Amino acid sequence: VADEHPAPVQHSPLEDSAFLKAARGEEVPHTPVWFQRQAGRSLPEYLRVREGVAMLDACMDPELVVEITLQPVRRYGVDAAIFFSDIVLPLKAVGVDLDIVPGVGPVVAEPVRTLEDVARIPDLTPEHVTFITEAVRGLVGELGATPLIGFAGAPFTVASYLVEGGPSKDHARTKAMMFSAPDVWDALMRKITQIASAYLEVQVAAGASAVQLFDSWAGALTPGDYTEHVLPHSTRVLERAGALGVPRIHFGVGTSNLLDLMAEAGADVVGVDWRTPLERAIPMVGECSVQGNLDPTLVFAPTDVMTARAGAIIEAGRAARGHVFNLGHGVIPSTDPDQLARLTEFVQSYPLDAG
Ligand code: CP3
């Protein structure tokens, strides 16, 4: 009977793109590649359009977001675009007083420390971010068969900016709240879970083909603390994103001890930073694909040294269900774009047939 059959797979150049196939664990014509922070200060065309425009103002201008997101796609022909925004943008959109200070990062005017502070942060509704809907719709039209990755900051990483008031090396105040004020911590994690989930829903509803959850600073936690205080919340965000029917990438830095848990939280693809060889990461992520993980400083080495390392990563990635090539963290602003162009070409032309 008809309803014993699964829904037919939709075939379109977009759904059949190498990136989405690798994310779903299907066979690919070439290893797909994109770069975290591929849009940004390493590109002269980015510096030109950003001149005199503050970071958050740029993020709230759909025309600029479309242009900046497309820049690395045009230049490199990468296999995916990532929406140009920032993990703190949805907080700004609901009214949290914060700014992104050049060379520093996000700075929050009134750090969150109490239940009352948490209660003052509104839930996010689509009306807060109509400019995001507009930008994503515009992009999807321009990108054609190139998938657009939407993203959000994960509860722990976003909490760190809110609680510390800015970037932090040790996340001491954040972890102190986690250890000593479980009620405040729980309320804060639930608030960020709502904001991240609603923000991802807006991006997918407008046409994003995949989402990445950035838990950049989760590597500061022991597996036990991650499991108890963070995992349930990230799981909820990924569960809601999964219900939207798009692949979910879950990424953090310094997470060699957490990769199994990050997979368990509900990822289709686990992002791996450059410190953990894929040979070690792959057995930890079970049925997930992997994304990564060239050391971002290898672009400063001679091209043959860089490509030799990239080739070894592609070979290691073949043991995974699927592999999306990327850097192990963001593009460093002083990166020569011509090196990333050579790297893209190398990865996309690397032969995958013949064992
Ligand atoms: O191309 C892309 O990857 C998409 C754009 C993107 C930005 N931020 C643009 C940006 C993405 C995905 C982010 C996410 C983000 N923001 C994360 C998670 C990813 C990671 O790096 O682990 C984090 C931790 C942030 C917080 C943040 N915002 C930092 C640490 C900084 C850098 C501060 C500085 O000036 O060095 C920002 C600002 C920011 N976000 C810039 C860009 C291009 C630089 C600002 C500028 O160009 O003026």
Automatic annotation (TrEMBL):
GO biological process: protoporphyrinogen IX biosynthetic process
UniProt subcellular location: Cytoplasm
Keyword Lyase: yes
Origin: domain of life: Bacteria
Entry EC number(s): 4.1.1.37
Annotated metabolic or biological route of this protein: Porphyrin-containing compound metabolism; protoporphyrin-IX biosynthesis; coproporphyrinogen-III from 5-aminolevulinate: step 4/4
Keyword Cytoplasm: yes
Pfam families (UniProt xref): URO-D
Record's catalysed reaction(s): uroporphyrinogen III + 4 H(+) = coproporphyrinogen III + 4 CO2
Gene3D superfamilies per UniProt: 3.20.20.210
Coiled-coil segments: none
MF-aspect GO terms: uroporphyrinogen decarboxylase activity
Residues involved in substrate binding: 37-41, 86, 161, 216, 329
Cited InterPro entries: UROD/MetE-like_sf (IPR038071), Uroporphyrinogen_deCO2ase_HemE (IPR006361), Uroporphyrinogen_deCOase (IPR000257)
Keywords: Cytoplasm, Decarboxylase, Lyase, Porphyrin biosynthesis
Quaternary structure and interacting proteins, as annotated: Homodimer.
Task of the protein: Catalyzes the decarboxylation of four acetate groups of uroporphyrinogen-III to yield coproporphyrinogen-III.
UniProt-recorded name of the protein: Uroporphyrinogen decarboxylase
Origin species: Nocardioides dokdonensis FR1436
Gene, per the UniProt record: hemE
